[in-house]
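QA checklist item 7 of 12: single-chain prediction sanity check.
[x] sequence parsed
[x] length recorded as 371
[x] structure emitted
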Amino acid sequence: MPTGEYAVGTFTHTICTDREELLAPGTKRNIPVRVYYPVLKESVEGLRKARYMSREMAQALKKSMHAPINIDKAEAQGDNFSECYENAPKIEGAKFPLITFNHGFGSYREANSFLCLELASHGYVVISVGHPYDAALCEFDDGTNIPLYKEAMKRQYEPMLPGMFAMMKMLKTKGTDKELADKLEAVQNKYCTFIVSRLEEWEKDTLNVVDFAKAELSGIIDFSKGIGATGHSLGGIISYLLCLDNDEFVCGANLDGANFGNHKGKILRKPFAQLSCKANLGVESRVHIDHTEPVFQAVFEKMQHIAFSDMKHLIPSELIVGGLDPDLAHEYVCKIHLELFDSYLKKTKDHPELKSCEMISIKEYQPDIQD
């Protein structure tokens, strides 16, 4: 349940681009998005809530994430919906800052609905971006679907076994933030060329989404303060790259994404938050170096990588999602995001109020480069 002063409206849209689809030569790349936006609570009385997951998506997630989703049971119990309303009436004359969200590799557009809903309920327009061929399933408004690229999982590491062993070793490596970042770069350059090649496409997808928002959603989005970015896993890396590469993005967060990509010679000039589980700290150190603005690290206890998404609720195995209570885990993920975006995007606070607790360790890195 979102906790903000607003209810949440939603709709989907397919953005058609002129870009060639690199994984399907001869076709153009189209981008499915879901928009979450603030609406008045009284305006949604009697409206239909948005369906959370299609039967086709449930089947795709069983295959890509081994998620034991019983769609028939969810439908029968009335659980297959989100706390948002299809095409709810927009607030006349009201504009809100924009945040883009990018899902993880092999994940899906609605994968972090808990976060998108919460941000929208506190006065943000959130656009969640689907990435064709890199998602478990991309669903388009015309009823067509694009499944995950059949070679995607095999090509995460090339060759597979040496690459997996190198990454496992990397996760256990000790060193300074700079040493770890350099070692990850060496591993990715040797084994992860396919994944790195997808980063540029995802970044372009998000910029196409921004163009769509400017052209079609200027009536509900306030662009004067800039744009925020967040995402999970590979999508979290995209938020970091957007803050590195594009002046319109003024702050961002990365939900447990290993810092792949070419960052050499680049300086982060935007406030940023890195949210991590302990297992992945060794591959998420790039954010902490070469920056002129505050950077925040939040390390979650009893948390696994996939638990930073809705899968925390959908997969019962603690081995896969960790032992931290799902509601508490998501509550703290949302709190950190709101503190970050309220301070640096909406600018209603001077500084994020982030404190360590039994479940989360918070560290603030002061600028290590003078701008």
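[x] summary fact logged: Residues 7-365 form a domain with the Rossmann fold fold (CATH 3.40.50.1820).
[ ] second reviewer sign-off
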